[in-house]
Delta-9 acyl-CoA desaturase
Amino acid sequence: MDFSYKSISSIPSVVWYHLKEGNVNWTMTIWSILMHTLTLKGLTVIPQCKPETLLFAFLLWPMTGFGITVGVHRLWSHRSYEAHFIVRVVLMLVNSMANQTSIYHWSRDHRVHHKHSETTADPHNATRGFFFSHIGWLLLKKDRAVVEAGKDMDFSDLLEDPVVRFQHMLDPIFPQFMCFVVPSYTANYFWGEDLWKAFLVAGCVRYIWVKHCTFLVNSAAHLYGDHPYDTASYPAENPVVSWFAIGEGWHNWHHKYPYDYACSEFGISSQFNPSKLLIDALAAVGLVWNRKRGTAAWSHGKARRDRDAAAGIPYPRVNTRPWEIQIETKKAL
Ligand SMILES: [Zn+2]
Ligand SMILES: [Zn+2]
């Protein structure tokens, strides 16, 4: 992140430029300000909440996170495995609780991101800096190049799934209901939590927290970390982001082999990846199948590692200690 005087002092002129050019997406900007304000209020009431509410809000982090990672990302955006109808329904419900737009819209933006990474057609182009790739892209209207890129791609497969169609038809009412009303009344009904506190903590604080965990994949995992699989690309292997985003920080591998359901080269014992663990557990009981892996690429990588090992070059070249993450500066592609 660039905290230099030059970058901070340029904020007013950047904001003024976008206001003048009419680039601001006011609906999203007002929504974001409102939700972050409620989140700040929510943080102040945490000490007055019942322990059950705090545990519930904490558990909603991975629960709703799986709706993003296992659901809209690995299943619907990349088709990296297939899932039973029941699994798809549950993933759609927890995805709605995460409330990050409909599965259709999320997948559309994400496929455009993969195809046009770090160009003007990338919805969250990381060459525009940390803030833009993290949240700024949602506060501005889409670049014309992004819209045109979307028109050139086919997303009809998404709406062939009745589960996706159902959620898309009820968007945005259904996700709002699942994200805020269901957790608030759950905490109120089952352990008598005050409705307002349940809404603030299990609703707003948890919602904003999970959103920022997701955003870190687009910002930090595109700017900081190692590039063992594709040295020319921005996406990086970032173990810290994997902790926040339950296994999505192994992003250099993921952009190289997006069809890989694990979104990482190694198993869960060496790379933190609870999303892979969940898919494997569902496969073990026959609820998901056809899990794709970057097998050919993996074998190629293994041959390379063996050659490196013989030459005395250490591997894996993935940082395991957060404070050693390299901060790289690259020219725009
Ligand atoms: Zn990416
Ligand atoms: Zn992806």
